[in-house]
């Protein structure tokens, strides 16, 4: 599976919700002769579209609060969520935490308990 930055991954889910809603609504077109069933499909299909709007709005607000870092590999600026993320241009792992510099990318570094456990395991491997 191709690695993506967290912001792009969330945007991908929101886009999938739009298409899911459209497909559900399109299925409803086959039931035009039954207005109640047709209406139910339209309403059910509208729900994922509204959810995608909420997700897009949320990630947009979250995106304004993120820090921008310059990727050491491609020299482009990218928005970063958490301590470890992936560059949205070159898909290389980047971090703002000096403890994680040079280590293989792991999504668990953004969770405090999991990060401490991973760092402890790394220390045990070294010793």
Instruction: Using the CA coordinates, give the radius of gyration.
Output: 21 Å
In the sheet with the most strands, the strands line up as 1-2
Give the oligomer, counting copies of the same chain as homo and different chains as hetero: single chain
State the end-to-end distance. Answer: 33 Å
Helix-strand topology string: HHEEEEH
Instruction: Please give the share of residues in helix.
Output: 55-70%
Helical run tally: 3
- SS-based class: mainly alpha
Number of domains: 2
What is the mean predicted local confidence, pLDDT?
A: 82
Shape: elongated
Would you identify the regions where 5 or more consecutive residues have pLDDT less than 50? Answer: none
How many beta strands in the DSSP annotation? 4
Largest sheet, strands/sense/barrel: 2 strands, antiparallel
Q: Assess the beta-strand content as a share of residues.
A: 5-15%
Organism: Abyssicoccus albus
Keywords: Cell membrane, Membrane, Transmembrane, Transmembrane helix
Pfam family, one: DUF2614
Protein name: Zinc ribbon protein
